[in-house]
UniProtKB/TrEMBL annotation:
Residues 469-542 form the Signal transduction histidine kinase internal region domain. The keyword Transmembrane applies. Keywords: Membrane, Transmembrane, Transmembrane helix. InterPro entries: Bact_2-comp_sensor_kinase, HATPase_C_sf, Ig-like_fold, Sig_transdc_His_kin_internal, WD40/YVTN_repeat-like_dom_sf. One of its GO terms (cellular component) is membrane. This is Signal transduction histidine kinase internal region domain-containing protein. GO terms for molecular function: phosphorelay sensor kinase activity. It comes from Polaribacter atrinae. The keyword Transmembrane helix applies. The chain crosses the membrane at residues 423-445. The lineage of its organism: Bacteria, Pseudomonadati, Bacteroidota, Flavobacteriia, Flavobacteriales.
């Protein structure tokens, strides 16, 4: 410093003393102040109406996830990509909040919400600040605090002095909500019907900020108040008309609509420097300060537009976003789909994509691919695909800034096959042709059928006769049995035993009537079948020369026998066969046992006797030339009732001695309920 001072003295004023030293000092001081100012101005850029802004009054600034800068002005709001401003005319916009894919815009008469190229307006009092508190959108208005519901804005009842007061800011910190109003700073434990409302500062408070686990409160006339645990622990005076306070790295930037920007050290709150029209080319009327994702400071003034202040070089890897997708030149509502399914005529699709670099906005290049190789790099950020064929597609886009490449972003979509190319349409056409061919063949067959009608009628008659024959077989009962019954009735008449005669005639008539009635039906109840068997067995006991006993047992799992349906005359042939062939004439202890059980949705029948055995009885039949047609027909009927039939005949043996025969079969259980 001394060498520099002597150099200036000897060069500019070699012969003068005091006067020379004074001039050198002035030049040195001028150089000292000019150099920093010149350095700062190199990093400062101003945007005004000539650059595309609709006005020079900037009220608020925010940035979306793509990187666009959204700017609230007194003549609407604007979107800035670093090169161009896109302006949306509206009344004065006071504040902005961007949360995920929604943009909330605070107006004098309500709230405007933008999402997926659609806007929704909610009427309310003038909104001064929008905050996300406890996952809810909370509004600071000129008349209390409000909450944005699904389709309306709900005023919140907190305290009479808050509900009708102008609210400048609101923030949640350490389970406490702080409300800055023109009537002071308030703390509440919750927004909805708070139990404790405490006033911490009396004067008008304008802005709130959290810093190092402390709350910074900006007042209108008494500077900053630092609050920790509801107590003012520090004051920073000599700051007035504060419009907003923001933190940038380790600095607190304090904006004023009259005094420019004061910068404090964030840890000690010691003054570092002042930024205003006296030391930089910036307006002293500052409304807001915002730091973007590349660490640049954006300053909104009330008379000179927007300023960009870049003091650091931050290298950030670029990120590309698909902004809009248009199908047949109409924007789709949402991009949050895993795969877009389009109809066959929706085969014109457009993509617009963007990488925002607010430091070097013109340095971004893009390339894309659609199922094939990537295109060359270019500055084009939109592509149209026309008349795409049906099938699956994957659109991929990538951006770069210099040598830095972004991650690849993909979007899948599927175009349906035209109806006339679909398999079902082709099959339908083939089916129609086949149908026409079938109609032609049908006409030809009808002509042939006229010639063959007589043969068909003959077959129908033959089939009817077979049916009648089967019913006749169902009715078949041993003629010898009928002959014995009639002879028995005759003998009872001759003996004069009228009582037994009448009983026998009655039983025989009931048996014949039941056989005749049942023959007309395809199914009868198990109860009726058992009653018919009892009549038959009792008559056989009376009239047959062979003496025997019988038992009928049922195990139906609590099902009423009248509700179970079986084919008629299903059991009688087996009982008759036992009586006729199982016992010798001199057998003294002949027994027949019938067991009917319900098991696993099947009706099981078991007929047992203690006769001579199945094989011995067959030998007797062969010697007597007797053929049991009814028995064979009944076996065939059982086999045709179900594919799960299990007809069996086996001899009962004890110690290699034949003790009788056991016949078993099952049919599907069928009921009338």
């Amino acid at each position: 410093m001394k060498i520099f001072f002597k150099f200036l003295s000897s060069t500019l004023y070699p012969k003068r003393g005091t006067e020379r030293n004074f001039m050198v000092l002035i030049i040195f001081i001028a150089l000292f102040y000019i150099n920093p100012t010149h350095s700062q101005n190199l990093n400062l850029q101003n945007f005004s109406i000539s650059d595309g802004l609709p006005t020079t009054t900037i009220n608020d600034i925010d940035q979306d996830e793509i990187g666009y800068l959204w700017i609230a002005t007194d003549k609407g709001y604007s979107k800035f990509d670093g090169v161009n401003f896109t302006n949306y005319k509206q009344e004065e916009v006071n504040c902005l909040l961007i949360e995920k894919n929604k943009i909330y815009i605070g107006l004098k008469n309500g709230l405007l919400v933008l999402q997926n190229n659609k806007s929704t307006f909610f009427e309310s009092k003038e909104i001064l600040k929008i905050k996300l508190i406890h996952h809810k959108i909370i509004l600071a208005t000129v008349q209390g605090v409000c909450e944005l519901k699904e389709d309306y804005i709900q005023p919140l009842e907190i305290h009479p002095q808050i509900d009708f007061s102008i609210i400048n800011d609101i923030i949640s910190y350490k389970n406490t909500v702080y409300i800055a109003s023109i009537k002071g700073l308030w703390s509440i434990e919750k927004l909805y019907k708070p139990l404790k409302v405490e006033k911490l500062i009396e004067e008008n408070t304008t802005s709130l900020l959290i810093n190092n686990n402390q709350l910074i409160v900006a007042t209108a006339t008494k500077g900053l108040k630092i609050i920790d645990d509801h107590t003012i622990v520090k004051s920073v005076p000599n700051l007035e008309n504060i419009s907003s306070i923001k933190k940038r790295n380790d600095e607190i930037w304090i904006a004023s609509p009259k005094n420019g920007i004061d910068v404090l050290e964030a840890n000690t709150y010691i003054f570092k420097r002042k930024i205003n029209k006296y030391n930089t080319a910036i307006s002293s009327q500052i409304n807001t300060v915002f730091k973007d994702n590349q660490n640049s400071i954006w300053i909104g003034s009330s008379n000179k537009g927007l300023y960009k202040y870049s003091s650091e070089i931050v290298v950030i890897k670029p990120e590309v976003f698909i902004e809009n997708i248009a199908v047949n030149y109409k924007l789709i509502d949402s991009l949050n789909v895993t795969k877009l399914v389009l109809k066959s005529h929706e085969n014109n699709i457009s993509f617009s994509y963007k990488t925002i670099n607010l430091k070097n906005p013109k340095n971004t290049e893009y390339r894309y691919q659609l199922n094939n190789d990537f295109t060359p790099w270019s500055h084009q950020n939109q592509v149209d695909f026309a008349n795409l064929k049906a099938g699956n597609y994957q659109f991929t886009v990538q951006s770069k800034e210099g040598s830095l490449l972004s991650k690849k972003v993909t979007f899948s979509f599927f175009i349906e096959t035209p109806m006339y190319q679909k398999a079902w349409f082709i099959i339908l056409c083939i089916a129609l042709l086949c149908l026409l061919l079938a109609l032609f063949i049908e006409l030809h067959i009808r002509k042939l059928n006229k010639k063959n009608q007589q043969k068909i009628d003959t077959l129908k008659v033959a089939n009817h006769l077979l049916t009648l024959e089967q019913k006749a077989l169902q009715l078949q009962m041993n003629p010898h049995f009928i002959f014995n019954v009639l002879n028995g009735i005759k003998a009872l008449g001759n003996s004069g035993n009228s009582k037994e005669l009448n009983k026998t005639i009655s039983q025989f008539s009931i048996l014949l009537r039941s056989v005749l009635n049942n023959s007309r039906l395809e199914e009868i109840s198990l109860h009726d079948e058992i009653e018919t068997l009892k009549n038959y067995l009792e008559l056989e006991q009376k009239m047959n020369s062979k003496s025997f006993k019988y038992t009928i047992q049922t195990s139906l799992n609590n099902i009423d026998s009248e509700e179970i349906l079986i084919p008629p005359m299903l059991l009688q042939p087996f009982i008759e066969n036992c009586i006729k062939h199982a016992f010798q004439p001199n057998t003294s202890d002949a027994k027949i046992k019938l067991l009917i059980e319900v098991k696993n949705r099947f009706l099981h029948f078991t007929v047992e006797d203690n006769g001579i055995g199945f094989h011995q009885s067959k030998k007797v039949k062969i010697k007597s030339n007797h053929q049991s047609v009814a028995l064979e027909v009944t076996k065939e009927r059982i086999q045709h009732l179900s594919k799960y039939n299990s007809f069996s005949i086996e001899e009962i043996k004890e110690q290699n001695e034949i003790k009788g025969t056991k016949i078993g079969f099952k049919i599907p259980l069928k009921t009338d309920y």
